[in-house]
């Protein structure tokens, strides 16, 4: 799965994935902004992390990154904010990516109305479909009419993104750096790794990360179909290959892939032992794409494609249509963002058991798992008066209210009796209206969200399965060492560089090119910025360490 797809897919359920450093990418328009490098800049301290009090989990977290698990909903909810962020008279315009269907207008949308009432602000919400996000953002960033808040989500590589942020958006360092964040206690609950994954721009803090678990995403599987075909967690790579072929009989496909999934290459490359895109060790910078492990993964995927294990529409199907095929059993697995687990479980409707695949084992290789950068995306605030900026931060602080609070329940579940009902176990279960009016179709949670626990209302067994899965894979998590680093070359040319990789992977796995052609693809990637970016990341890393 591509880096933008991971973050993107995560989205469908609150989801996504690793992309280039969040604040390294902005528009081809007149961003200006000058150099965004952090080298030789005094770095604003990260916000002082102050964990929020919360309910005791049923399944314990670990320091490595296993999430706290809740098999039941907290009995008593608390208030996380003392008062509404607004006075009921202010209006703000916001924009985010979306993976859902267009929301109903606010006049007929009870979820939207309830959120506006709770915030004390009339929110004018613009949502941009995933498929249109890159072009829409290019137009937006080259124009003069900016929303008050913009979410950069989905893992896209947008040219000169950081320059745009630096020149057109508010420097939030004085509001959030160090102890200043304590004015916004729910934002102070965002762990430091999420801020680090987002990164600074020229030493300053311009965005607020939307925290995600350290687990990037997963290959979600139809448990019964995979096990019938011979699947076992941690099986040998050759046996996984045979299992995928067996699970693809009778017009079924073991492996699904969307038009932006590129055959799930990030998963397979890392399970073959390739680094998580960029590795910096002892002063040496190694990229994923030039390694022998990456080429071995290409060969492995090519063989599975030739054997018929991949969806025949793998290079053209949309992520939304892929989900439909996964839910109805046409495809037996689907790479998706970690936050999409609950929406996938709901979409399946008990037709089969949702689980996640543990990496297969390649002879002579140590499989690693892709660590999330720690955030789905980040939100910026356009330049404004100090009072206006504080209003935006109060709104974002409300949206970051932690699990176990009344605010969290409203944003994540809606209004009791309208969008959800408590079942006999005390879990908030969506009503038919709640399946339409919710945080997926009106993604307030992509502006800001609380640190996420493992909790799936109505699916206690799924919480247990995925907690067990996390315990198996989290010890193998490997971070992408370029997160938080700046490269002017990567800012300018990252999108075209990524296109070279994705086109090359698609051509080779689909059989249009030979495996031996990868060397030429890699050389093209190097010449179009890969080699220069490597040098710049090395300098940034040295300056930061």
Outline the structure in words:
This protein is an alpha/beta fold. It is built from 18 helices and 16 strands. It has helices at 3-10, 110-119, 133-142, 161-168, 173-176, 185-188, 192-198, 223-228, 237-246, 265-271, 292-306, 319-327, 341-348, 386-399, 406-413, 460-473, 488-509, 518-544, and strands at residues 69-70, 90-98, 121-129, 149-153, 208-211, 217-222, 278-281, 284-287, 333-337, 354-356, 369-370, 375-381, 420-422, 428-430, 454-455, 477-478. A 5-stranded mixed beta sheet has the order 3-2-4-12-5, with helices on both faces. A hairpin with a 2-residue loop joins strand 7 and strand 8 (284-287). Helix 10 (265-271) crosses helix 11 (292-306) and helix 17 runs antiparallel to helix 18 (518-544). The longest helix is centred in the last third of the chain and has 27 residues, at 518-544. The chain is globular. The two termini are 31 Å apart. Residues 1-31 have low confidence and may be disordered.
